[in-house]
Amino acid sequence: MATTKYIVDPQFIAKYPGAVTLIDGAPVALSGKDLTVETPGTRENAPKTRVIPGATQEQLRYLAETERNPHIRKIEEKDGGK
């Protein structure tokens, strides 16, 4: 029996490792790993650190099937690996 998995095109992530998209108004990192964005402080504002969570399988499925994102790939894995 095979399971369905969604991945981001490896060539796209290699070229754009900090790629972010919005899902329901919330940013998610397409790399699947949390992305930390640091904004330096100014005289008026303190420095800020923001963590953008990595995309989950459910979010990648939404991007592939609903949004038709061309960088999301659907792969079938056999039980026990690829």
Write the layout of secondary structure elements.
Layout: E1 2-8, H1 10-15, E2 20-23, E3 26-29, E4 35-39, E5 48-52, H2 57-65, E6 72-78
Antiparallel strand pairs: 1-6, 2-3, 4-5
Features:
elongated; 82 residues; alpha+beta; 39% strand
Written description of the protein model:
The protein is α+β, with helices and mostly antiparallel strands and 82 residues long. It has one domain (2-78). It contains two helices and six strands. It has a two-stranded antiparallel sheet with strand order 1-6. The chain has a two-stranded antiparallel ribbon with strand order 2-3. The protein has a two-stranded antiparallel sheet with strand order 4-5. The longest helix has 9 residues, at 57-65. The chain is elongated and about 60 Å long. The model has no long low-confidence stretch (mean pLDDT 92).
A few lines on this structure:
This protein is of the alpha+beta class and 82 residues long.
Output the number of helix runs: 2
Number of strands: 6
Q: Report the sheet-strand fraction.
A: 35-45%
Percent of residues in helices comes to 10-25%
SSE series = EHEEEEHE
- Per the principal axes of the C-alpha atoms, what is the gross shape? elongated
Write out the strand line-up for the largest beta sheet, numbering strands in chain order: 1-6
Total of domains: 1
**Please, what is the average pLDDT?**
92
Q: Sheet with the most strands?
A: 2 strands, antiparallel
